[in-house]
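In response to the reviewer comment on reproducibility (Comment 2.3), we provide here a single inverse folding case reported in full, input and output, so that an independent group could reproduce the run without further information from us. The structure tokens appear first.
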């Protein structure tokens, strides 16, 4: 089997990437969305090919991501959310649903949907992961989407 070599980042010029972020916990997701957009531009995705959207909360991210694929013809999606543990089992239900939904969408669509959803115990943990001190997890998710696009492109060149 031939070795898969990542494609050129210049091949990202014509790729459309949607960044969809939850409005819930926007004090965290705003920073993550900004980090994702900056990372995409740095990797060569044209500004006019970056679409930013908001959905109500993390639970809605899988469906919002599907809308981006189906209606906007996104080549990749970066799903951004922040679920912070509270005193009820709601945290577990939301985390499970969004994880399962994004995983299923990746498999059924074949379009990379990067998981940029924080699941933290405290507000402090969430804000640390949305800033620059411990790495912006929105930017990291965007880089994951880029890597998957390059991987997919390299496979298509092989066939």
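Designed residues, in position order:
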């Amino acid at each position: 089997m031939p070795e898969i070599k990542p494609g050129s980042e210049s091949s990202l010029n014509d790729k459309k990437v949607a960044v969809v972020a939850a409005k819930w916990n926007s004090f965290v997701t705003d920073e993550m969305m900004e980090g994702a957009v900056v990372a995409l531009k740095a990797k060569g995705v044209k500004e006019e090919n970056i679409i930013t959207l908001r959905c109500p909360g993390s639970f809605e991210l899988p469906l919002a991501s599907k809308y981006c694929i189906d209606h906007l013809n996104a080549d990749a999606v970066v799903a951004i959310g922040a679920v912070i543990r509270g005193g009820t089992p709601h945290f577990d239900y939301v985390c499970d649903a969004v994880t399962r939904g994004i995983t299923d969408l990746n498999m059924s669509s074949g379009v990379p949907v990067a998981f940029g959803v924080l699941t933290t115990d405290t507000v402090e943990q969430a804000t640390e992961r949305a800033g620059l001190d411990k790495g912006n997890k929105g930017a990291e998710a965007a880089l994951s989407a880029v890597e998957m696009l390059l991987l997919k492109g390299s496979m298509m060149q092989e066939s």
